[in-house]
Amino acid sequence: MQKKEEIQAQQPFAHWLNSVEGIGGAWARRLVAFFGTPEEVYRAGEKSLLAVVGSSRLEGLLKAQKNEVYEAYESMARDNIVFIPCYHPDYPKRLLQIPDSPFGIYVKGRMLKDSERSVAIVGARNCSAYGRYVADAFARELAKEGVAVISGMAKGIDGVAQNGALAVGGRTYAVLGCGVDICYPASHEKLYEEISRTGGVLSTYPPQTAPTPKHFPPRNRIISGLSDAVLVVEARQKSGTLITVDMALEQGREVYVVPGRITDRLSDGCNRLLLQGAGMALSPAQMIKELSGTVWRSCPQEAQDGADSCVKGVAAGNTAAEKCSGQEKAMLSLLDFYPISMEQIYIMAQNEKLLCGLKLPQLMELLLKLIARDMVADEGGYYGLKKPI
Q: How far is Cα 366 from Cα 339, in angstroms, rounded to an integer?
């Protein structure tokens, strides 16, 4: 099946084969290799199928052969969903190289091109303000350098990173643990529509497949498989994010980790990965420069030059802080992304020359000014930075 017309004629049957329950990517490829085309698999007799798949998978195939093929495919096409089987010229070469590569990928939007540089950004769903800032900063700077951001469109780090890439006109791809016709989580409908329009929503699961827990670990191998490197931003010791990391390492992908405090449970998984030898991500510029010297070494020189001139990202100064008074700067110096109580701020202020003479109401007034200028966040009586200083 080399000619475009032949591939197109087989598309309804390729979609059918990928939808057969109990037939994974390896068996689907084996069936096509044996019979020649997905259509021949659909029309194969019981004895022929038995010789290839054995009795355990035979029943599912025979049952699926009773299904109508063209109607299901045309319904999918009307929803602007495309199925790209492994023999299709648009199938990502990155996925052909991974263990247990899928038989095909469903796409709403467009597929990641082999020529595109890509980084997966993954992390905790219940992330901190610090994690949100870091994910957004890295995604924006990677996107500005033309790097596609891959993630799972989940709540927390995934969604923040993908929104960050879109905010600067970058391209991002979401790999779902359900059909591409289902927005999951439902709260990310706006993000889902924007990714579908400018990038691509991808899945190995047929349309109408519900988002059940068993579907998410396998989809993680696609997130890492489509990426040149994986960046982890906040992960607990026992986290689903670490499944993606394990798969990335198995696939030979570079893994970078944003370090965190040893007292922060959201950083336990990250710090453990660093202890095991993962790369440390201190800024987008550093990460881009390192990747440009390794996995992206063959990329155009402009891309490598861009890494050197890239915005400084997390380490960048906040120009708004330069306009603050001396007392306001001193107050900001007491805070970071981990919110603390007013009592803690008062105690710390006693060791600051510009603040030690202030009473509690005066310190509170300083905080309110900084909150009004969107530099400090009030999280239920606990205060922390909204931006780096």
A: 16
